[in-house]
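In the laboratory, one determines a bound structure by crystallizing the protein with its ligand and collecting diffraction data. In a computational setting the workflow is compressed into a single prediction: the sequence and the ligand go in, and a structural description comes out. We illustrate the idea with flavin-adenine dinucleotide.
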Amino acid sequence: MDKAASILDTAYATIMPRLPLNFNIREGYGLLELGLELKLAGRKDMLNFIRALPMTAQELLDEYFESDVVKAAIASVGIHGFTLGPMGAGTGYTLIHNWMNRGGLANVNVGKAGEITQALANAVKSFGGEIRTEAEVKSIKVESQIAKGVILANGEEILANQILSSADPKHTLLKLVGAQDLPPEFVWHTQSIKMRGSVAKIHLQTNGNHGIPEGTVVLAPSIKYLERAYDAAKYGEISEKPYLEVTTSGNVVSIHFQSAPYALRNSEWKVESAKVAELAIKTLEEYFPALHASRITHHIITPIDLEQTYGLTEGDLNHGQLMLDQFLFMRPIPGWSNHKTPIDNLYLCGSGVHGGGGVSGAAGRNAVKALK
Ligand SMILES: Cc1cc2nc3c(=O)[nH]c(=O)nc-3n(C[C@H](O)[C@H](O)[C@H](O)COP(=O)(O)OP(=O)(O)OC[C@H]3O[C@@H](n4cnc5c(N)ncnc54)[C@H](O)[C@@H]3O)c2cc1C
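The predicted complex, in structure-token form:
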């Protein structure tokens, strides 16, 4: 897995050519570098990697393990954050992707994330840059297919020569730019990006005596359990027996709940959110009974909240599902994998483009390299 993750990491660090269009010398050079890295990886690892991508996580794990418990624990990494079950084609790829972003089987809290963002913020300021938060962009100002600046919700206009958006591609292009300024075929492709959020998050404030061990705990007793937890999402329903991933930080217990689809077929989120929070907590209490008495309060974030508060279209954590037809030179859409858009001076640098999703920084790094 580590070798496969390292190959994927190298691919993510390479700006993809705009296939099926011809690619320029800079893109060709990047691909040459990637080719060399892959050659160095060796034929056996390369073959294992390519073979694993379209496989189901279940098939892949069947080749190595006998215990269903072990298989399910590992397979849960492959479906975490995706609207997929471990019996679905392509979960071999998503398993490698999440393995890469987590540095292995479980999230390891090394406590440095704040330091990294602080260092980045300091770097911006040292170059004379200004960082503004609570500044919602209502639209991107476009004149003659050239991005000129942004207009904030309060009406303020900020002009710029280059604009990078880390909002998801659908949000950026269809809402902030608008279909009227884009070629029809491009609009059609952008509308077709598959966004399928099906995760809810529940944060619990406890008195600390919750009994849950430190680190990452997954409720994933078998491959079939995980597949059924996903089945519900296919029919627009909330899993009655969800896959949970639990992390603790002092008195706070955070539960990742799957599947909780954005588009509910027979209900709506304002009715379901309290029920989902209760279901998550009750399910966890079956395994950690001490949690019950230690509860103080809780807060749920539904896929609708992810869309309305964080701008994630359809609550998709990765700004677009990671699937084999939406990765490498097909992310965000075929022909536009080099971070550029049909609008001059407007670039995409977030999770929905090649290098994303996840908290790796790869998409942003590639986007900066792609700037004119
Ligand atoms: C519940 C949950 C669990 C996750 N688990 C994992 C995990 O285990 N491992 C992992 O690697 N990744 C995980 N992810 C995914 C990861 O968080 C994202 O891939 C990553 O944050 C994307 O980074 P980004 O900078 O591209 O976009 P974002 O972090 O989404 O940042 C985009 C920013 O743009 C802002 N924005 C959007 N629209 C506008 C606008 N119009 N005006 C102004 N600002 C705007 C948003 O508020 C947001 O701050 C998880 C995400 C969620 C929600």
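The first helix runs from residue 2 to 12. Keep in mind that any predicted model is a hypothesis to be tested, not a measurement.
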